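Q: My labmate handed me this sequence with no annotations at all. I'd like to see what the chain might look like in three dimensions before we decide whether it's worth expressing. Could you predict it?
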Amino acid sequence: MAVIEIQTGSYNIRGRETSMQGHRFELVEQFKQGSQGSYVTVKGGTCQPKLSGVPDRDIRIRCDSTRDYLVVEGEITQGETVAEPEGVVNLTQNAVSDDRVAHETDEQIVERLKNRFEVLREMTKAVKAGTVRAMIVTGPPGVGKSFGVEEVLAKDDLFDMMGQRKPKYEFVKGAMSAIGLYKKLYQFSDSKCILVFDDCDSILLDDVSLNILKAALDSSKKRSISWNTDSRLLRSEGIPDKFEFKGGAIFITNLKFENVRSKKLQDHLAALESRCHYIDLQMDTEREKCLRIKQTVFHPEDGRPGALDEYEFEDVVKDEIVDYIMDNKKRMRELSLRTAIKVAQLRKGFPTSWQKMAEVTVMKGAA
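A: Here is what I predict for the chain of 367 residues:
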């Protein structure tokens, strides 16, 4: 029997919609869309942590898609699997246990992470120089993926700004349509341009967008990108229905490709991975994320400022913040550098009540 953890979803308890985020259940039936809305069916009596008001029977937790829960134990059996709605690709990922890194010491993990981020910076320099044409960077949210890339690309950009020249790179964030992707690639198709797709996983959910992205990330000498249907919008903006993309492309994602459960998507991700350089920052476990937080707060690489230096805390206060996150890591909405910064903001703004504030703003509901 598979066990899932709710990421986003609710259940009506005594007439009130109650968030089930962070609670685990044995799975009865996967995501469905019905006349009463969309939901996943679980065994209410298996709720962990226990939550008052959840009945000891099969219940339906309201959610929008299979992306709203993670399979954390076991595997989906044939009886639990239902067909995904047509056109929907499942981005749900398997959770990774700390057992995977049990053979490594803390020092070895920290050194490995440091080396990975150094490779990220060097590879970004190579994209900027045109030596490397495209790469994919994957790692959990809030660990510094985007910062590492932008830090390299922004260097020397001051001269372009002073000369009022168009920047040679752009970060594209959030959802994007297929035609929007095509237009953006055309705008940055020059060999000296770099386009960075940051948290644009919605591109992976659309076949047309996905095929365009494959073409842009291809390592072949000539990358031709085509728009194969008539478009008044492209004609009105003078954009051809075919062009050669000579620029650099970096795709930054929270998805670890091999952990995605969807069979439909796995083939597409494998095709993307085969086309360009793929950098996995290897922070899949809670232990690795905790060590990354400590590293960036107390021992940043190459003389860089620590993640909390701007708050001018004494080391004892930094220890207090980090220890608080480590002690409550199971309840944190997100175990990341962003969480450390949020807690630091609370510590700075509410010196006597910051823990009470953090209970509400950065932590999941108590059992």
